[in-house]
Design brief:
Length: about 525
Amino acid sequence: MSVIKRALISVSDKTGLIEFARSLRKWEIEILSTGGTASALREAGLEVRDVGDYTGFPEMMDGRVKTLHPKVHGAILGRRDLESHMEQMRENGIEPVDMVVVNLYPFEATIAKPDVSLEEAIENIDIGGPAMIRSAAKNSRDVAVVVSPEDYSGIIAQMEDNDGSLSPGTRMELATKAYAHTAWYDGRIAQYLADRSGTGDKFPEKKIIQLQKKLPMRYGENPHQQAAFYAIAGSGQTGVAGVRQFHGKELSFNNIVDMAAAYELACEFSDPACAIIKHTNPCGVARDDSLVRAFVTARDTDPVSAFGGVIAINRELDAPVAKEISQMFVEVVIAPGFGEEAVEILTAKKNVRLVQAPSPTSDGEMVMKFVPGGVLVQDSDSITHDEATLKVVTRRNPTEEEMEALKFAWTVAKHVKSNAIVYADANSTIGVGAGQMSRVDSARVAVEKAQRPVEGSVMASDAFFPFRDGIDAAGKVGVRAVIQPGGSVRDEEVIAAADEYDMAMVFTGIRHFRH
């Protein structure tokens, strides 16, 4: 292992910088530096050599040009094992640099500011930094590249154990991190400029997907699968990407999947609402002026399935709701906030996971589904229904109350796995049939799951009825109105069936498949 004799340090994030540089100086390592980094080191009493003095070329253009020089990149890229490289370095007065400590202009922090100008963002695009990082990473056999203050302590510890040198394995590990660092940086710039210019193609020939690790996980869907939770860069940390867990066991892979489904559904409603999810499907949804009544009604839709489920509330969770929740086994409770008394009640249950999260937003977001070897990308399903496209197609018009119930059922159906059938009244689900291979089976399952009479309720179907059998199944149990997209070649037959049962039927013109 070669000993480090010279380090070039130029950092925006100065966390731990002084302590790290002092440790390097213990081995009499010469430090080259630039601008603010050099000033900070000198103020701490450390001896520093300006890069401009080394290259014989001053910083210029407001710092845009300072390290883009052959004496800098030759010092980093020169291979120590090739005599021809070493001879050229000697001929040109190039002194080898054995360590490059660089982190980049704070572009991501800059564009996160609400009123940042395009000019300010562009001035925070680093050029010399990525060039030095990539040069050092390419020559990692001879040069250690350090891009994160989190690595300082480990590097110093290894140098202390190895008389001022780092192992080839450590250099390669650092190089790998360096390439990830510059790739992330460039990806954020590309995405920002595309968004800012308004010319970004939603589906370009090459799409960069950037993920930031949010949570480690014990395992994935099953214990034999490893997993972690990542947030999408630029997502704004909304919904479950912005979760803050403050009580209970660590979140699991399946918890997060169900949390996302539950919270997205609960937040569809402007009234106080509760959604209870089991295995990504709603087993109970309700809204009410009283939050506790909304919860109790949602729970009682299917209390057996609600056992061990995920509960989402779209308001600050208060003590009355907490008392009801405390009487059942639940995996996760997610809400935008928790009252003090509610926290006191729920934290008495050791394992229940309490999670606070900002409201989800789907505006402009893309939905991605990974399949082996590829990714499907689409717009989010942000439309629930369009009042202008709602069309009554039966002889009987729905009553005002039935129309309210139809819209409620349709909102819930949007969040149920296909084939989806939802029976509901104006404010709560009565029965949910999810994920069956035929629509008529979903209609029957929804009746079987119902804890209250289905008679007099309404039905929502996420897609058109291919045959009249689904209407027959609903008509026999007394359903009074149906909402569905329409568009089947047998629409006339399906409408005629609804008329036979004196049902009102509304076409939405919008489908809500959810796979």
